[in-house]
Amino acid sequence: MKAFFTNGDFFKSSTFIKISAFLFISLAFFYFGKHWSDGYQQLIFFNSRQNPLTSSQITPTVSLSPNHNKSFDISSLIANTTTQTLASIPPPSDPEPLPPPPPPEVQRFRIVDENGTMTDNFEIGDFDPGVAEDWGSENTTEAVEESRAVVKKFGWCNESMREYIPCLDNVEAIRGLESTERGERFERHCPEKGKGLDCLVPAPKGYRTPIPWPRSRDEVVFVVLICWPKVWFSNVPHARLVEDKGGQNWISIYKDKFKFPGGGTQFIHGADQYLDQISKMVPDIAFGQYTRVAMDVGCGVASFGAYLLSRNVLTMSVAPKDVHENQVQFALERGVPAMVAALATRRLLYPSQAFDLIHCSRCRINWTRDDGILLLEVNRVLRAGGYFAWAAQPVYKHEPLLEEQWEEMVNLTSRLCWNLVKKEGYIAIWQKPSNNSCYLSREAGSQPPLCDSEDDPDNVWYVDLKACITRLPDDGAGSNVTTWPARLHNPPDRLQSIQMDAYISRRELFRAESKYWSEIIASYVRVLHWKSYKLRNVLDMRASFGGFAAALIEHQLDCWVLNVVPVSGPNTLPVIYDRGLLGVLHDWCEPFDTYPRTYDLLHAAGLFSIERKRCNVSSIMLEMDRILRPGGRVYIRDSVGVMDELQEIGKAMGWHVALRDTSEGPHASYRILTCDKR
Predict the structure, then answer these.
(1) Per-residue pLDDT tens over the stretch 548-577
(2) Which domain of life is it from (predicted)?
(3) To the nearest 10°, the Cα dihedral for 495, 292, 383, 217?
(4) Tell me: the pLDDT tens digits for 370-422?
(5) Which of 56-65, 249-258, 540-549 has the highest mean pLDDT?
(6) Does 431 score more than 80 pLDDT?
(7) pLDDT at residue 94 above 90?
């Protein structure tokens, strides 16, 4: 056989020729049949009918269909034959019943077997994060339906609203106040529900990117310059402060710039020299070590806080929106922490024992009115053992009226158990006691009294001032914080007093959050190049323990963070301040107390999945647009269920939005929405 194939005789045989001819004819018929049938109405078929005369002889023929080039009404043919066809079909017989399905296998979820002993052979049920998010929600359906809707583009607000602060510029509500003699008009009076902001607050014409820190500490550009980057005059288009305070070394116009010489009403020779004087008067103040967080009341353009930054001190500069209404706006434009706030009839939105030092330099506050109720509020937010520095005319001027004011101040501070540590020149410095022993040793009926033991000194949202002395914790919590920078990472004692559900050690939660954000910020710096963004003013909209802000400090980003603690969650502000950070309590169903175009970066982690159950998501996003600078960025880290709605709203506001996966990958329940405000 092998020889037969090798010699080639097989290919010459008649068998090979017959097989080849059969294959060739078969392929030819297939090709011609397919070719001539495509694109033609005629039907080509094979007819194998038998001849009736000669049943043994079969004559295969190929014929054209008799229906070639004819058209028929198929529907009529179907209609005529349907009845006959159905009648000819016998009724179907009933199917045999199927056997019942086997009972489902019982799944047991346990770590104890039938004998009561521990076992590793157990199963864990599936977890649906949406159940936890929607738990107790009554408007889940509405939220889902809204997220699928396309949001119409928002229009621009009127030009007169360029510096609009909704809760402080509510003219209608302010006109309806029964009294304004205690400063009520400077407090929050938010628009009624449904009457809030529904448009985009425009930037001033010619708005440009602010000049970077620390150059912005000293100068702000007044008119157009060739140099870049600079802050143009139109960013804060007001020169009245120059007219009113130019002679006091606050602010001046030099050629084409706003200049900030660093002075103030009581420190006309500059803030640096003034801070040196305070340090010499009371060395224990120790800026940047013991004193890490300060508050400057009636801050002006915040030169006091601006120069403390170089000494590792964060200062909350506060002032009302009064006749010098743009002083806080100048501070924020310089890149200095500041808020619009007033000591009037309600508690400040900061926790008890928040500040290591509180400073007032000609702040125009009558501390002794109403039996010292305003100084009692300062006492509440001043840390045990902290200092109050007062630079004012009653300290050094010997006029009858001013001397009387000084005596009233000394009498009040003595009843508060404050110790006058030093009085030198035009500065007086008191120290708050570190425990309750002095308060408890006062004579019966002494005024002001101690606050009730059930009073929560950290409850501040729309809470009226109280004419009583805030008690200090018996365990010394709040007064025994470590020095900076160790306090940034040490879990403080007040961590244990936070009202929250914790099933593991709170210290472990604290450390876990710090590690979590440190790793995330490291990836942001490495992958997203955060250090190239030149961030300065940052707002964390749901701060928890302040881990996000701590991570920015750890990775040496030259910015400051205002940590917002929503009223809808645990009040963690005491922990934030004990770490040496700044924070404030807020309800995101209402507008925020700051000027438009304040922040370079807004960060929101897990905010919308919580607040959408009680707030209008569009209102929160519009408020974010108001306080975000043109060119600013937004990072939203939240559940997948809210991302569609947030993307639609962001696009409707003109933001450039992009959805990113987290480090857990595309199947994680969370996403990151990055937004750029053009």
Answers:
(1) 999 999 999 999 999 999 999 999 999 999
(2) Eukaryota
(3) -120
(4) 999 999 999 999 999 999 999 999 999 999 999 999 999 999 999 999 999 99
(5) 540-549
(6) yes
(7) no
Using DSSP's 3-state secondary structure scheme, residue 450 falls into strand
Ramachandran angles phi, psi of 593, nearest 5°: -85, 75
Q: Are strands 582-586 and 560-566 parallel, antiparallel or unpaired?
A: parallel
Question: Can you give the length of the chain in residues?
Answer: 678
Q: Are strands 382-391 and 314-319 parallel, antiparallel or unpaired?
A: unpaired
Mean pLDDT of all residues in 290-301 = 90
Residues 6+ apart with CB under 8 A from 583: 350, 543, 546, 562, 563, 564, 565, 573, 576, 577
pLDDT band at 600 (very low <50, low <70, confident <90, very high): very high
User: Which residues contact residue 44 at a Cβ distance below 8 angstroms, ignoring those fewer than 6 apart?
Assistant: 33, 36, 37, 62, 64, 65
Average pLDDT, the chain: 80
The residue among 69, 28, 64, 32 whose CA lies nearest residue 46 is 64
Q: Classify 322 in phi/psi space as left (phi over 0), alpha (psi -120 to 50) or beta.
A: beta
Distance from C-alpha of 145 to C-alpha of 141, rounded to nearest angstrom:
6
pLDDT at 81 over 50: no
DSSP sequence for 29-97: HHHHHHHHHTT-SS-EEEE-PBPSS-TT-B--EEEE-TTTT----HHHHHHHHHHHHHHHSPPPPPPPP
Q: Report the pLDDT averaged over residues 483-495.
A: 95
C-alpha pair distances (Å), 536 with each of 419, 547, 601? 38, 18, 8
Six-digit token pair at 567?
């009223």
**Amino acid letter, residue 597:** R
Q: For the range 511-520, what are the long-range contacts, defined as Cβ-Cβ under 8 Å and sequence gap of 24 or more?
A: 513/544, 513/545, 513/547, 514/489, 514/545, 514/547, 514/550, 514/551, 516/547, 517/547, 517/548, 517/550, 517/551, 518/547, 518/550, 518/551, 518/554, 518/555, 520/551, 520/663
